[in-house]
Write a structure and sequence with these properties.
CATH architecture of the largest domain in chain A: 3-Layer(aba) Sandwich
Number of strands of chain A: 14
Strand order of the largest sheet of chain A: 1-11-10-9-12-13
Radius of gyration of chain A: 26 Å
Largest sheet of chain A: 6 strands, parallel
Structural class of chain A: alpha/beta
CATH superfamily of the largest domain in chain A: Nitrogenase molybdenum iron protein domain
Strand content of chain A: 15-25%
Number of helices of chain A: 16
Oligomer: homodimer
Largest interface: A-B, 122 and 122 residues
CATH topology of the largest domain in chain A: Rossmann fold
Order of helices and strands of chain A: EHHHHEEEHEHEHEHEEHEHHEHEHEHEHH
CATH class of the largest domain in chain A: Alpha Beta
């Protein structure tokens, strides 16, 4: 792993907006589903997933869900159940109440907080079918109180293998029981506009390939969508108190995701930098995904030696990484200085996979430097707020003239008159004060 | 105003994505500002705002801000100060604390809530320069704790009149003192990428014309942006206990905004429908903006007579209006049934302009049916969250095997090894349990 002097690193990588052909294909699919409903949905499922289904076969049956449990190891069920419980506990802490503020004049102002009514979660097929992502998308919605959570996922390779049973178990543990075997842009369009078999949703979330990403962008506005994730990143800020073997393993766990993933070590110690570089090389050679991890380390990995932890923190804040590990003496003393990081892992035992799978916080975290202004997925992503104004007669009489002043200044006489008609009827005339 | 039977109304109107020429112009401007900085900013300001400025003249001086107070009426200052105070009080109620959850095994999980560091607010020039919008954009950011709030607004007509003093007073009352006299797509690009004179921001908000909207879309990703507002809407749900003159005035106050604005009355009473229709016609004839309001009422206005209040509520929930007034006996008893509405005004004295200008809740509210899944602007729009994980050694020893199980199931051996290297060093070996 390269040790490089401090310089203008940038974690931002190009966002894939698809080719013109991909965009045209997606637009056509979305249009067809919108117009033709199930007919188009079944046609595209046969075309792209090579699976012939009837409308009645789209939905996964309770029997299939139950049968999935018999196809997975008990140790997996134990682990996914424990993870789901932790994730649920953490997200429960984020729940908020509607509130009202009673004014002395009898007026009531407030904010009503409600869950979205129906949410769709996309789960990719094949090797990208991650049970952990099912939990991370579904549980926040469920904790928010969303009454209808629906999942879509491709029907399986050539319709033979069916849906991955691990995905079905994760869905069941997370509390989803409405699952449709459709994928790709056609599944996104079906969730957005509805078909005879699938009722439309208010929001669509979950990862997918470029067609899924383009389809989400295409239907945005008709429904809400989550943000589209870029390649994953980690920055480790460590000093000589850290174990180079631990840090190297954490850097590699990020690098193995994807050739575009980025793993960066920031340290004030040249000796630690060198020791970690050696460890990365040693461990990399033993990794099954060494080709991917190696490309990531080569192209987007770096060790930056800084003058001090404080300088390291300013590098971190500039990079605004998705994941940050702070592995120094007394890591908590630096947390207050971290302005930009999606998730912060503190101390030697908070390895990133602890958060990816198990501890409770969400693993869907802003990438590509966007932690500067955005946040990990949480319960807030599945609620909506309504303002509430109950104005008393006394409040209107008291403040009406000021409201009219502001409206008239903006040239909106109709606004002023909506107040004036009330003041007049209540026996007062606007006296300009 | 047309009385129509219940049918498939839809408040959605076409979103303006601009012409290809407008898109090309905006892309060129953004590119030039990004590359040339101030030089391009000054050039475009001269070209589009017909105002020749030097870099030193871009920023509004403290003297200008002070002088603005002498150019506005004391009654305006009084009203805007009172409005700012109410808006601040309401938004203060939305502030949230970072939190930590201490686990029995010594682990600490939490969510760190921080304000964005620097926010830019766009304020249009000319007739669309609304002091109330300055308050509604700036105050939530200020309450969130954003340390740097910067405003941009066109330099004025031909550079002669300068910036509207009412806007400057509103900015000062809201607490902004960094103001630049630039507008259009060039101002948005300067906020997003920075120039020699204007430091880049993390988020851009505020209304503007099509060029401003397209520029915000263009820079999104480099910075966050607010949502782009559609035409304004009101739905009034009223029964015979309401005053037709009040309801008509409220409908017209919405209609006068814009020919695309929509005003809809939903009522179970044919008599009330007819009385309100007559009142709308009477009051419309007296309105200065009767051409605009008349076109809005004609094209996007309607009175829908329903069987019952309950049926009316289902119409409301389907329309998901930006503004909803409930003017019936005991309006509070229906609030729990309102699933979709951006702002809810209850009772005869809660005329929409009360909320537009004064009461405290934000007047930037989701339009075009998006109240189904989005919310009025509030303090949450100016914060970001970071997850925090401090895992104890005990927790890792206890849970490590389950984390490895989940990682290995997903084919991410590097993730498993990041845990395993720690378990091994701590004198334990993964025993598969």
């Amino acid at each position: 792993m390269k040790i490089v002097p401090i310089q203008e690193f940038d974690l931002k990588r190009e966002v894939d907006y698809g080719t013109p052909e991909q965009n045209a294909t997606v637009k056509q699919i979305v249009r067809d589903i919108k117009v033709e409903g199930d007919a188009a949905l079944l046609r595209y499922t046969e075309k792209y997933d090579r699976t012939a289904l009837s409308s009645e076969q789209l939905r996964v049956t309770p029997e299939e869900l139950k049968a999935a449990y018999e196809r997975v190891e008990p140790s997996f069920v134990k682990a996914i159940t424990a993870a789901a419980s932790n994730i649920r506990s953490f997200h429960m802490r984020q729940k908020r109440n509607s509130w009202m503020d009673m004014q002395p004049d009898g007026s009531i102002l407030g904010q009503i907080i409600r869950p979205l009514k129906r949410v769709g979660v996309y789960v990719p097929g094949g090797k990208a079918a991650y049970p952990s992502s099912v939990l991370m998308n579904v549980i926040p919605a469920q904790v928010a109180g969303v009454p209808e959570i629906v999942m879509v996922t491709p029907p399986g390779t050539n319709g033979k293998e069916g849906i991955d049973p691990y995905i079905l178990v994760a869905a069941a543990e997370a509390g989803v029981n409405e699952i449709y075997r459709v994928g790709g842009a056609q599944a996104i369009a079906a969730l957005a506009y509805g078909t005879e078999s699938i009722a439309p949703v208010d929001k669509i979330c979950g990862p997918g390939n470029i067609y899924v990403a383009l389809a989400k962008r295409e239907v945005y506005g008709a429904v809400d969508i989550d943000s589209i994730a870029g390649p994953s990143e980690i920055v480790v800020l460590a000093d000589e108190s850290a174990d180079p073997a631990y840090v190297a393993a954490d850097l590699l766990s990020q690098a193995e995701h994807d050739e575009m993933a980025s793993a960066i070590l920031v340290t004030p110690s040249q000796a630690f930098a060198e020791a970690t570089s050696v460890e990365v090389a040693r461990q990399l050679a033993l990794l099954p995904r060494r080709d991917i991890a190696g490309a990531s380390i080569e192209n987007y990995g770096a060790i930056i030696v800084v003058e001090s932890i404080e300088e390291g923190i300013s590098v971190v804040n500039r990079l605004a990484p998705e994941h940050l590990e702070i592995v120094v003496e007394d890591p908590m003393s630096y947390v207050g200085s971290i302005e930009n990081a999606g998730a912060i892992f503190l101390g030697p035992y908070s390895s990133e996979p602890v958060g990816d799978y198990f501890a409770g916080p969400n693993h869907i975290i802003p990438t590509n430097g966007t932690a500067r202004f955005s946040s990990p997925v949480d319960v807030d992503d599945f609620i909506k707020k309504s303002s509430m104004i109950y104005y008393s007669k006394e409040a209107l009489l008291q403040n009406g003239a000021m409201i009219m002043e502001l409206a008239r200044h903006e040239g909106l006489e109709g606004h002023a008159r909506a107040i004036e008609v009330r003041l007049e009827k209540e026996g007062r005339v606007n006296n300009g004060q």
